[in-house]
Amino acid sequence: IIMMPMITILGYMARALKANKQFAVSGVLSSFVNLIGILIFVIIMKLGVKGLLISTVLGNIFNIGYLLIATEIPNYLRIDYYDKQLGRRLIKFSVPLIFNLTFGWFVNSFSRFYINLSLGAVSTGIYSLASKFSGILMQFAAIVNMTAIEDAILSSESEDFITRFERNISDITTLFFKICFVLLPVISLYYNFVDNTD
Fold first, then answer.
1. Distance (Å, whole) CA 44 – CA 145
2. Distance CA 80, CA 84 (A)
3. Using alpha carbons only, what angle is made at residue 97 by residues 77 and 13, rounded to the nearest 5 degrees?
């Protein structure tokens, strides 16, 4: 609850500083730290929900630390940079997004608690491990999406803006369909070799 808003804000700051590579790397590396934590604390040490919490916290700490060091964000943080009027406008704009993020968090968290209560801690660990792979894919999607938005902003004044934007969206959509077409058979093959797939 404390770390996720920090990670979100640091991620936006990293992108504002055009540290897109560091932003991407931080998400992927923290997912791997979390994945290793799940393997150690949930599957090997069998700590259950405590293991999940420890691995999540470790992944988040790693993400925050990497973003602070790699992007040199602390050099840009000064209290006299804060604009109260702009802050109010941003809060007013962001209030509707709170409900969307809260619902997404609830769905993700509820599924883990439900699996833990109905199937046990080991199944929760397997589910969390599997979620990391989709998390890496989502991180990739966020990077591509961020790049498309940044390109749209930079080229908004050009004459061929509409054509360029349509081409970018078409290329991104095609790319993701190709990735999905490759992943679907891989996922199907994976489930043929896993027990207790229900």
1. 37
2. 10
3. 20
Predicted TM-score (pTM) of this structure: 0.51
Judge whether residue 195 has pLDDT over 60.
no
Residue 17, judged by CB atoms within 10 A of its CB (0-12, 13-18, 19+), counts as: middle
The rounded distance, in Å, linking the Cα atoms of 62 and 10 is 13
Is the pLDDT at 178 greater than 90, yes or no?
A: no
Taking Cα atoms as reference points, which of 19, 143, 128 lies closest to residue 75?
A: 19
What letters, b where the CB count within 10 A reaches 16 and e where it falls short, cover 73-97?
A: beeeeeeeeeeeeeeeeeeeeeeee
Cα–Cα dist 174/195, whole Å: 34
**Which value, in Å, is the radius of gyration of the alpha carbons in the chain?**
20
Measured CA to CA, the distance from residue 25 to residue 6 in angstroms comes to: 17
What sections of the chain are H helices per DSSP?
Answer: 3-16, 20-37, 49-71, 84-119, 121-154, 161-192
For the chain, the maximum distance between any two Cα atoms, rounded to a whole number of angstroms, is 60
C-alpha–C-alpha distance, residues 55 and 61, integer Å: 10
Residue type, 78: R
